[in-house]
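Protein in question kept in full:
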Amino acid sequence: MSSVEVARLLPEHWGTVARIYAEGMATGNATFETDVPQWEAWDAAHLDDHRLVALSDGQVVGWTALSPVSERCVYAGVAEESVYVASEARGRGIGQALLEELIRGSEHAGIWTIQTGVFPENEASLRLHERVGFRTVGVRQRLGQRDGVWRDVVFLERRSTLI
């Protein structure tokens, strides 16, 4: 296994980041989204200082990012997280490395809660989030439809132990 470096996600990474995002979408168990947005839309929706890629031999093999949950000032320390790993790189600890670095950076920036939603069928993602300190808050039943099928979403959060 080659070593993995976690680095800032830059616009030039977008082509590979978008491909990895599309791979996750294609599983049907990663997101309600069905189309990868253009860079400009994705860029506008995510916090600039909290976007990371995992590089293996210089190639992007995973990414994570935070987006704000609300524009209200009371929620300034709460963000929503996404993490995706390329199919050929799964099971190598890349998701954990990405999330651990994302957590470090978010705590340094004053973010006290990171939340995420995971389909219950995505057991690997649920285990990953538990390993880095997320807890299940509850299950949001029939939250939305994906491909015409109502889906439940496990709602998870990680509260900072430093803030």
Summary: The beta strands are 4-8, 51-56, 59-68, 78-85, 113-118, 135-146, 149-159. The chain has a mean pLDDT of 97.
